[in-house]
Amino acid sequence: MNWSAPHVGGQVLLTAQNLSAQSLSPAALSALSGVRTQSLPSAGLTVAYTPAGQTDAEFAATLAASGLAAQPNYRYQALSAPNDPGYPINAGISVGGALYDQDYLTRINAQGGWDKLEALGKTPVGALTAVLDTGVDTAHEDLAGRLLPGRDFCSSLVTDAQGNTNCSGEDSDPSDLTQGSEAGHGTSSAGLIGAATNNGKGIAALTWSGKTILPVKVFGASGANSGATTASLTAGVKYAVAQGAKVINMSLGLVGASTDPALSKAVADAAAADVLLIAAAGNTPNQGLYYPASDPNVMAIGALAKTDALACYSARPAAGQKGLDLVAPGGNAGSGTPNCYQSSEYDILTLATTAQGRYTLRAGTSEAAPQVSGAAALLRALRPDLKVKQIRGILTATAETVTGGRLLNVGAAVQAASAYGGGIVPVPFVPYSLRVDAFLGDALAGTATTTGKDAPPIQSVTYRIKNLVAGTYTLKATLTVDNVISSGEATVTISGGDAVRNIQTR
């Protein structure tokens, strides 16, 4: 665990919710003796408050030694790149004095997708899409008829005497934040996916009509501060799955931690339930992909600037991380200038809250991710029979290769999805081969090899090495996908018999 990453101070999260004497070992009972705890049923977690005189990391280590899985309650941030010295969204920003259009829709070939749907006798409706964010302005004129009731998993952001902030409470009102630096962020994300379209007002969105946008508020505000936590995000993901969401958009992220076990479990469960998860990659170019974009079960979306190069603020993968799955326009936001975070006339035209003037310009990977989510929602509504892996494969295989990565092409994706399995424009399955060697010290103790074909992106391949004796092994893997070679290794200790371990390649 990275305890230097942003997290709620004075507490740790326990993945166990049942802390009864019957369910805990004597060592665990001893470790929790006198400790204040709070159950979080929606997230399936428990907060344990750090005793005085201990750091959170020390307390977590004590709990772990007793057999309890403990982790930080990480604090997440929304990912719009700042457009001015304070933050990108400003209640006084006006677009009324100049005319701006949605040039990003042209760059991702949205019209081509809509035209193909019309030719098929269908309208551009989307599958149920959850927007995990700061909430949504439910009274916005350009979201009329688009929003489901939703839920709020961070009713307030409580600041303690040490200045730590933590989400508290939940309710049925997912209205967007009215204070804090990220106010309006969720309304923007929801608008890019599902602003009411062809209604003579405001902007067009990838999906045009129907109550298919589920607002899930995971951020709270305390004065100028706003934020989300592991607990609120985990609850939000679980809620979205329970409500039948087929796509989850997360324009947010955590820098400084390669994973978040509680959220990772919820994400993995969502993926197993055939939900497509999409996240903004991050808004700093030299700190790697933020989490959850770096999770293999999540599509990581980078941002292009005015050209087809990555925007100066867009996250790049760090060594050992997976690559960006797709890129989409995120606004120029200072690209090509000394200040990467200054506003630009080439930023993304999107929604603001009614109090903020209803429409504004924003920039960041937060604006790129909802474009992919909107496209994914179109595909999932068009072809509800296709699974997440097939939808991901279609989106990536039909993307246009540009300087900054694989640029979303909505028209090509809709065309491929409509013909998938029909022999007209099938998504190509790519060949792969895997070799895994198990070394016990310097001795080769076993090898597994396997070959096959699968739809891109290939995230994992199953293998088995039998008859390994007890010991600590170094597993070295080489994966070749369509003549591209990746390699990696992991250390695993087994007590005998077969072992199962995922190896992340790079």
Rounded mean pLDDT is 85
Named CATH topology of the largest domain: Rossmann fold
Q: Shape from CA axes?
A: globular
Number of helices: 10
Oligomer: single chain
- Sheet-strand content, in percent, reads 25-35%
Question: What is the name of the CATH architecture of the largest domain?
Answer: 3-Layer(aba) Sandwich
Strand order of the largest sheet: 7-10-6-13-15-16-17
Number-wise, the strands total 25
Number of domains: 3
Question: How many angstroms does the end-to-end distance come to?
Answer: 21 Å
Summarize the amount of helix as a percent range: 10-25%
The CATH homologous superfamily of the largest domain is named Peptidase S8/S53 domain
What Rg do the Cα atoms give?
Answer: 23 Å
Family: Belongs to the peptidase S8 family.
Domain Peptidase S8/S53: 129-405
Keywords: Hydrolase, Protease, Serine protease
InterPro entries: Peptidase_S8/S53_dom (IPR000209), Peptidase_S8/S53_dom_sf (IPR036852), Peptidase_S8_Asp-AS (IPR023827), Peptidase_S8_Ser-AS (IPR023828), Peptidase_S8_subtilisin-like (IPR050131), Peptidase_S8_subtilisin-rel (IPR015500)
Q: Could you provide a short overview of the structure?
A:
This is S8 family serine peptidase. With 506 residues, the protein is of the alpha/beta class.
List the helices and strands and how they pair.
Elements: E1 11-14, H1 26-31, E2 37-40, E3 45-49, H2 56-65, E4 70-71, E5 75-78, H3 103-107, H4 110-119, E6 129-133, E7 151-152, E8 156-159, E9 165-168, H5 185-194, E10 213-217, E11 220-222, E12 225-229, H6 230-242, E13 247-250, E14 252-253, H7 261-272, E15 276-280, E16 298-304, E17 326-329, E18 348-351, E19 359-362, H8 365-382, H9 388-397, E20 400-402, E21 405-407, H10 410-419, E22 430-440, E23 443-454, E24 471-481, E25 484-494
Parallel strand pairs: 6-10, 6-13, 7-10, 13-15, 15-16, 16-17
Antiparallel strand pairs: 1-3, 1-4, 2-3, 5-12, 5-14, 8-9, 11-12, 18-19, 20-21, 22-23, 22-24, 24-25
Helix pairs in contact: 4-10, 5-8, 6-7, 8-10, 9-10
